[in-house]
Design a protein that fits this description.
The complex is a heterodimer of chains A (229) and B (611).
Chain A lengths: L1 E8 L8 H14 L16 E3 L8 E10 L6 H11 L6 E7 L6 H4 L2 E7 L5 H10 L4 E6 L2 E6 H4 E6 L6 E7 L8 H11 L13 E11 L2 E3 L8
Parallel strand pairs in A: 3-10
Antiparallel strand pairs in A: 1-3, 1-4, 2-3, 5-9, 5-10, 6-7, 8-9, 10-11
Chain B lengths: L2 H8 L25 E7 L3 H4 L3 H10 L5 E7 L3 H9 L18 E5 L6 H11 L14 E5 L15 E3 L3 H18 L3 H8 L5 E2 L4 E5 L5 E6 L8 E2 L27 E4 L1 E2 L9 H5 L4 E2 L2 H15 L3 E5 L9 H12 L5 E3 L10 H10 L4 E6 L3 H6 L6 H13 L4 E8 L6 H20 L10 E8 L16 H14 L5 E5 L2 H11 L6 H9 L13 H10 L4 H5 L14 E2 L4 H12 L25
Parallel strand pairs in B: 1-2, 1-3, 3-4, 4-5, 9-19, 10-13, 13-14, 15-16, 16-17, 17-18
Antiparallel strand pairs in B: 5-6, 7-8, 11-12
Helix pairs in contact in B: 3-6, 5-17, 6-7, 9-10, 10-11, 13-14, 14-15, 15-16, 17-18
Classes of the chains: A alpha+beta (229), B alpha/beta (611).
């Protein structure tokens, strides 16, 4: 039985790395007594996989992990036990059963949306500068080295919040060679308006992931749409 | 704490989770609901401090008290320190992020000498006067405990109180006293004087040290009737009744020892003559099997850890080890909990255990013969033979291990070239044992790691009177071994002799070293135990500025009648016993395990029926 779990990563635990999160989930699953399947081989590992990694310092209300169970389990019970075993600041919101043969979330998810909050930044000016530029080059560091990405290729949508002037909504590509880490994207935008002075990542802008999406029958849907129940 | 400011700097430092807290099983209390706030301070980074068993015990124990909130603080890594100083951020605890300066106590654990500058740095970052005598009403009391507290003299200027021995009972008595004192509105010094009456509490300021012209100590005497002549360490008598945490914090980050530590017993009966732990943690006191199984069960469920280590000075000496390992395996192998025995002794490590351990997961095998020849092993009273090693590694190779670590010490008293040659021969013996195992049975890819540390004479050991080898000689010995251990199967690691030299200075130092610590810290010394931050030049300048010859402490032989800086501390084991052991060492005579027959070390004075 393969289960897709939607969970949050809140303010109080936002500085953990992706590796820390994986370790935390593994231990929470053990504490919760969930009958997770283990991989074969010399050093067996619990079968669990994660969607796009959340950078250190970013919060999220919708993260995804999928796990394979050795024996079936009621989803409300799974949710309750897992929540009980998780540190505060990580909470399971939904759990759905998905097809055993579903491709990895990593490969399915194509878009992630963010809410960026920063006091004292004129987002109108940022958006104007962004729209006016034909090319905004951003360095992207990966295992293979440094590449240069055009921010305009990495953004699906950018707009200011209608009610709160401090908030910008940003929709980014995921799982594509032109995809960008949200912190690099936000920093590039802030630099564009002269709001960010240094090269480093400036976390005085709070970056919050609001959702991740994949395409099904031509529509953007959340991974929960993979539910087969 | 300004959250926005903290967020800003957290984005600019490495591993910000070090300062985040909020781990599973962290204790949360409302500070307004408690009377006493205790900051448990570990003078090293989070990953190191969180690996320490004593901290886990005391953190959860203190938090059992309704009137006290114990929080944690670690040494900020150098990048964090820089940002904190840049932004005027005061040292804060992980739990509430409140500044340490407003706590009632800061408790430092002294695990190794090379963390002392971090203590000064943390006090400075907290905005607390470094010298105890400069602290006033409203400042926290700085207390230190742990193994190095047995000779805390180099830190005497900086700490208000020292806790000797095991803290489980002592800390409660101290906090009770503090609550009364706080309500009474009496002076700071009156608290210290009252605390000095608690057995095991040492208040350095209540003692005067006089020196002779040649630099040796003339006398150490209390300067008030409130302080006892000698301070005796505390021990817990019943290991089954004493508190042991059933929940421990599970860090998000990878830490050095990221596993459940099951403490089987305290103390060690072997009597290795170089080993301070083997002397100061006496007498041996075991937990019973049922209690251990109960604790293991609860900890596995409350943490979700996938690994458990049996932690004691010499775990394989546990009287019911076979039964314990068997039962732990039975109960937890289906939960996929791997067992590891970190401090193995060759002689009691039987073949069955190797096979038991293998059932769940293979962990590395380490052995510590400590010296290369039987003669020198007799001098240090390490009862391990060449045959023990050969048999054990052969069993290990037959069971599929291919990686063995060997630990030795160089610079031990009476060491000669032959003893160094012996190290190389034992390493070759391990290699030969591997090739004697059938090719079909053994695992491919042999890897033998030989590590040598340099002997550091420690207080409360039979070698406490002995000089350490000078740095140049230690280097020569390392070079000798580099040549002697040339083999594609053997890797040789060694410790920086300059660091060992400083350890030797501070391990047996006195109060005059306080100013050296201060000077070295001002010159930027911190994280001295981390090779990338160790600054020998700063240290040598610091000695020079204070007219202190470090060799006086590290490389000088003491006579029998010399007053040692720690002579007013009673660690249980008597000075007469240590001297007797030293004389036996010189004759190459061994002393038996004291469980076979009492060796008269003196620790039985601490209570009836202890051992």
């Amino acid at each position: 039985m393969r289960v897709l779990v939607e969970y949050t990563r809140e303010e109080r635990v936002k500085y953990i790395s992706h590796l820390d999160l994986m370790r935390t989930m593994q231990r929470a699953v053990r504490r919760a007594g969930i009958p997770i399947a283990y991989s074969q081989g010399f050093n067996p590992h619990p079968v669990m996989a994660f969607a796009s990694a959340l950078p250190v310092g970013v919060t999220s209300e919708k993260e995804y992990m999928d796990i394979v169970l050795e024996q079936p389990m009621s989803l409300p019970v799974l949710k309750e036990q897992l929540n009980h075993a998780l540190p505060k600041g990580i909470a399971v919101r939904e759990a759905v059963v998905i097809e055993d043969k579903t491709p990895s979330m990593m490969s399915l998810i194509k878009r992630a949306d963010y809410k960026v909050t920063a006091a004292g930044v004129d987002w109108n000016q940022v958006i104007e500068a962004y729209t006016g530029a034909s090319e905004i080059l951003v360095e992207k560091k990966s295992k293979k080295g440094v590449t240069t990405i055009n921010l305009k290729d990495a953004v699906y949508n950018i707009c200011k919040d209608e009610e709160n002037g401090e908030v910008l909504h940003l929709s980014l590509k995921v799982g594509d060679s032109s995809g960008l880490n949200p912190l690099s994207a936000v920093n590039a935008l802030l630099k564009l308006s002269g709001a960010a002075k240094n090269e480093g990542i400036d976390l005085t802008a709070a970056v919050h992931r609001t959702g991740m999406y994949l395409i099904r029958e031509g529509q953007w849907v959340t991974p929960l749409a993979l539910n087969i129940d | 704490m300004d959250k926005l400011l903290l967020d800003k700097i957290m984005g600019q430092v490495s591993k910000p989770a070090r300062y985040m807290g909020n781990e599973y099983n962290m204790v949360e209390k409302d500070p307004d609901d408690v009377n006493i706030r205790f900051a448990f301070a570990f003078p090293d980074v989070y990953e190191v401090g969180m690996s320490h068993l004593g901290m886990k015990i005391l953190y959860h124990l203190i938090n059992e008290r309704k009137d006290t909130y114990c929080e944690r603080v670690f040494a900020p890594w150098v990048d964090m320190e820089e940002k904190m100083r840049e932004n005027n951020i005061s040292l804060f605890t992980l739990e509430t992020k409140d500044p340490v300066s407003k706590f009632d106590f800061i408790g430092f654990t002294l695990q190794y000498e090379m963390s002392y500058t971090n203590i000064l740095n943390m006090l400075d970052l907290a905005g607390i006067p470094l010298k105890a005598e400069d602290r006033e009403e409203g400042h926290p009391f700085v207390i230190a405990g742990g193994p190095c507290a047995y000779n805390a003299e180099p830190l005497a200027d900086f700490v208000d109180l020292v806790a000797l021995g095991e803290g489980e009972e002592l800390i409660g008595e101290l906090l009770d006293l503090y609550a009364d004192w706080k309500a009474s509105g009496q002076s700071r010094i009156s608290f210290l004087e009252q605390a000095a009456r608690i057995p095991g509490i040492y208040v350095p300021r209540l003692y005067d040290v006089k020196y002779q012209e040649d630099g040796r100590i003339l006398s150490v005497k209390p300067n008030t009737k409130a302080a006892p002549e000698r301070i005796t360490k505390r021990i817990v008598k019943d290991m089954d009744k004493v508190f042991y945490p059933e929940k421990i914090i599970v860090p998000f980050m990878d830490i050095v020892h990221d596993r459940i530590m099951l403490e089987l017993f305290r103390g060690c009966t072997r009597g290795c003559r170089f080993c301070q732990a083997g002397m100061i943690y006496r007498p041996i006191r075991e937990r019973n099997l049922d209690r251990l199984l109960e604790l293991a069960e609860r900890l596995v469920h409350s943490t979700g850890y996938e690994e458990m280590s049996l932690s004691s000075l010499s775990s394989s000496d546990y009287s019911q080890l076979e039964e314990l390992v068997k039962q732990l395996m039975e109960r937890f192998s289906h939960n996929r909990v791997a067992l590891s025995l970190p401090s193995l002794r060759l002689d009691s490590f039987a073949k069955e255990f190797i096979q038991e351990m293998q059932k769940v997961r293979k962990t590395g095998l380490t052995f510590a013969p400590e010296a290369g020849t039987q003669r020198l092993r007799d001098v240090i009273n390490k009862g391990v033979t060449r045959e023990d090693l050969a048999n054990t590694v052969t069993d290990a190779f037959r069971s599929g291990w291919n990686s063995i670590k060997l630990y030795f010490m160089i610079g031990l008293p009476t060491e000669t070239e032959e003893d160094l040659q012996g190290i190389a021969e034992l390493a070759k013996l391990v290699v030969d044992s591997y090739f004697q195992v059938d090719r079909e049975i053994r695992q491919k890819g042999l890897n033998v790691t030989v590590s040598t540390s340099s002997f550091v004479p420690k207080p409360f050991t039979p070698f406490q009177w002995e000089p350490q080898d000078p740095i140049d000689l230690l280097r020569e010995k390392q070079q000798y071994l580099k040549n002697a251990l040339r083999s594609k199967y053997i890797e040789y690691n060694w410790h920086d002799p300059e660091v060992s030299f400083l350890e030797a200075v501070f391990a047996r130092g006195d109060r005059r070293l306080g100013n050296v610590l201060l000077s070295a810290w001002r010159k930027g010394a911190r994280f001295d135990g981390w090779a990338e931050h160790f600054k020998m030049d700063a240290w040598m300048e610091a000695f020079g500025e204070n007219n202190i010859m470090p060799e006086f402490y590290a490389n000088r032989k003491r006579e029998k009648d010399e007053i040692l800086p720690w002579d007013h501390i009673d660690a249980g084991v008597s000075k007469a016993f240590l001297w007797k052991e030293w004389q036996k060492a010189l004759k190459g005579q061994t002393t038996q395990d004291c469980r076979v027959n009492c060796t008269g070390c003196g620790v039985s004075r601490l209570g009836e029926g202890l051992c």
